[in-house]
Amino acid sequence: MKPAAVTAGFIPLKRKQHPMKVLYLFGISLLCLSSLSAQKDIEGLWEGTITFGGIYSEDTHKFQLYLKSNGRKITGKTVIHLDNDNYIEMDIWGTWHGDRSVYMEEFNFIPVVGKEKEGQKPEFYRKYQFLHSRSIWETKLEGYWQEITPETFGEKRRRGKISLKRVKEPSKA
Q: What is the pTM of this model?
């Protein structure tokens, strides 16, 4: 009886597939794909409310947030509507974390064209901490903001809550 053919010194062996390894690799690949889609899921226009006067205050203003992401980095704009004619618009940057949390800071005031001389400049800049949650019914960002001050735990530091929902884009027909 002759031995099996040998090609370049290699004898092919049949290996038994381990179902647990296959399931593990499949699960890891799904997690990686879902985290990539979640990063894109944060992009777009968000609308809701921002509170003033503390985290338990019910004094709210309309708040809009427009976000773009590039990997873990996030950039965008915030708009706080003080009333029908006045608003404050700021540039924002931040980081998207794998646990669905988002950290952002305002860094540049954008003056309203034609109202530069009316003193529509913000009193302070804010930093934000959000938690991004998705479900089949709604996608939302909820969290807190606080005034950026040299004293992190200063008594007079202003802060509040924010609740936002994604604005649905019009369907393209």
A: 0.69
